[in-house]
Design brief:
The chain contains 1 helix and no strands. The chain starts with 46 loop residues before the first helix and ends in a 15-residue tail after the last helix. It is mostly helical and 90 residues long.
């Protein structure tokens, strides 16, 4: 179960609080993790499931790189203007 499932309120004629994510994100219909007592064999991944996992991993790495760029821009040292480095001026 995903946290976003608590906020999605889609019904006919109304809009949802959270919009559906772009391709590569998992959806509720993709969750097939409910096992029954009769399921004795280990489940095998299909090529479609492997492709979705690869896409999700690619998206995660791209988002991580974008986050690092934003943090780098936010915390980079300020450029010295006018030769004054600040302080008391000794």
């Amino acid at each position: 179960m995903f946290l976003s499932e608590f906020f999605i309120t889609e019904s006919p004629g109304t809009s949802s609080i959270i919009q559906a994510g772009p391709d590569g994100y998992s959806t509720e219909k993709d969750d097939q993790s409910i096992l029954k007592l009769s399921d004795l064999r280990k489940t095998r991944l299909t090529l479609g499931q492997l492709n979705k996992l690869r896409q999700m991993n690619d998206i995660k790495s791209i988002e991580h790189d974008q986050k690092l760029k934003k943090l780098g821009a936010q915390y980079k040292p300020a450029a010295a203007e006018g030769g004054d480095a600040g302080g008391i001026g000794m």
